[in-house]
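Retry 2 of 3 after timeout on previous attempt. Resubmitting structure tokens to design endpoint.
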């Protein structure tokens, strides 16, 4: 067994059991879980603080990564990697002495302009997945050699369904990032790696592996951040940062926040209100990324805290943002949002979708999804979210597709074709087929494939109807699809 003095200099990259504390039914439980050490802090000889290690639990999503003390490590079972991980050349200080990869910087000193993105496509039956605006494709003649080699475009979608516990939502075989490439490609294995590794990007240099923001205070909620977001460096040294829930500006202290609120005049998102439900107090606001750049950039920074695979950029001009709020006597409070490209060559109706963690598991994710399809119905188009979806995003979309399709089949007693279902719901035929197969509604009968609505499916639908969830009322939606000329869709790089 190594002594702490021998272990600490070579700790980064080591794998060993860690005493993980989990809360189950309100009670703390401890168990040993294998983890990889990603970083170390307070290891200076004269440091007044104890040494801590930033660990990633193998087989669990990155949102569960955390700092642990030396006493939580089992040094008798440590395994060191073949090569030691080196810090990125463009590293900046991270949380309390850690280092994280710095975003590229333009000549003006601002982070490089790009958009958010997402990874590879996901079949409906694969558990978990999310969404984000897709990066615009540039002509080959305008691309640099490095850009030609890397053309993956992530996405960002988070839904209201948060993980019950790490075992049933985030568990599974751990995909080790940076491992040896396999001889044969397997779509299922790649999706599993993306799910448990927590990143939809294929290039490790684009992923910051350490959280730099501990907590955010937004309104009456204090929320723990899940992933890295390129907020100013000084925020990484603070126990929490404060966000204005109306303009989304971030400050570092409660006093600064009070001064900001005294000056901030916003009481709702800076856009057009296109939907209002007086009964549920839900509103939707349409915002043009080109007209409200600062607000949309603040929104991207916020969403990056909860969407790891989202490659965040500052080029928000090509997107429209749809913000969902809940109103009271103070103002309209931010619940979630989705964005969509002003012009999508793939006819995506959602590029990025997110419900804030403090408002998850309340049905708001499905409400966002339903609203995006109501817009598609007005446009007389079928739509689909940009693939792949995040783990929580796929859960919400899968649930929405199943409920919507079962509702239509129940209403028409199963006398509908896939094309008719698509026209009724604005869901693409491909998404409908994936859903029908997952629900086992496709049967082979007398040489033909038919849709079979079983008694169990009907009971499931009736149970969902009895829940009486909040739904979008199309009569309260006042929206005309925006039209853009070719010159308005031309953006500078």
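Retry 2 succeeded. Sequence:
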């Amino acid at each position: 067994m190594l002594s702490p003095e021998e272990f600490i200099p070579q700790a980064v990259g080591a794998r060993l059991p860690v005493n993980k504390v989990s809360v189950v039914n309100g009670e703390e439980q401890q168990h040993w879980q294998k983890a990889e050490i990603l970083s170390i802090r307070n290891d200076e000889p004269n440091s007044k603080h104890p040494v801590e290690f930033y660990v990633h639990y193998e087989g669990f999503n990155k949102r569960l990564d955390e700092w642990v003390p030396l006493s939580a490590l089992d040094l008798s079972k440590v395994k060191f990697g073949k090569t030691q991980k080196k810090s990125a050349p463009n590293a900046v200080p991270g949380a309390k002495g850690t280092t994280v990869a710095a975003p590229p910087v333009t000549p003006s000193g601002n982070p490089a302009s790009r958009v958010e993105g997402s990874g590879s496509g996901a079949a409906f039956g694969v558990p978990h997945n999310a969404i984000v605006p897709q990066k615009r494709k540039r002509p080959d003649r305008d691309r640099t050699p490095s850009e030609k080699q890397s053309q993956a475009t992530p996405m960002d979608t988070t839904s209201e369904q948060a993980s019950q516990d790490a075992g049933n939502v985030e568990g599974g075989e751990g995909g080790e990032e940076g491992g040896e490439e396999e001889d044969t490609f397997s779509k299922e294995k790649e999706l599993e790696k993306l799910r448990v590794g927590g990143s939809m990007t294929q290039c490790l240099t684009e992923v910051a592996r350490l959280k730099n923001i501990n907590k955010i205070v937004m309104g009456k909620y204090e929320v723990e951040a899940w992933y890295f977001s390129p907020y100013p460096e000084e925020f990484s040294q603070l126990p929490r940062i404060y966000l204005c829930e109306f303009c989304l500006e971030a400050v570092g202290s409660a006093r600064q926040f009070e001064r900001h609120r005294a000056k901030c005049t916003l009481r709702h998102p800076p856009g057009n209100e296109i939907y209002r439900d007086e009964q549920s107090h839900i509103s939707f606001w349409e915002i043009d990324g080109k007209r409200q750049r600062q607000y949309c950039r603040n929104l991207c920074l916020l969403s990056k805290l909860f969407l790891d695979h989202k490659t965040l950029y500052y080029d928000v001009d090509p997107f429209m943002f749809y913000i969902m709020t809940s109103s009271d006597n103070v103002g309209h409070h931010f619940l979630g949002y989705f964005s969509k490209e002003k012009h999508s060559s793939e006819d995506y109706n959602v590029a990025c979708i997110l419900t804030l963690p403090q408002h998850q598991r309340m049905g708001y994710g499905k409400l966002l999804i339903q609203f995006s399809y109501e817009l598609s119905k007005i446009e007389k188009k079928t739509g689909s979210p940009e693939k792949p979806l995040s783990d929580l995003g796929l859960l919400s979309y899968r649930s929405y597709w199943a409920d919507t399709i079962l509702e239509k089949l129940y209403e028409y007693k199963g006398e509908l074709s896939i094309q008719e279902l698509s026209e009724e719901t604005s869901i693409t035929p491909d998404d409908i087929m994936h859903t029908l197969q997952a629900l086992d509604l496709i049967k082979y009968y007398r040489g033909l494939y038919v849709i079979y609505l079983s008694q169990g499916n009907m009971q499931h639908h009736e149970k969902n109807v009895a829940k009486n969830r909040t739904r979008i009322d199309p009569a309260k939606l006042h929206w005309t699809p925006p039209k853009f000329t070719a010159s308005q869709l031309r953006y500078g790089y």
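Attempt log closed. The domain at 215-395 is CATH 3.40.630.30 (Aminopeptidase).
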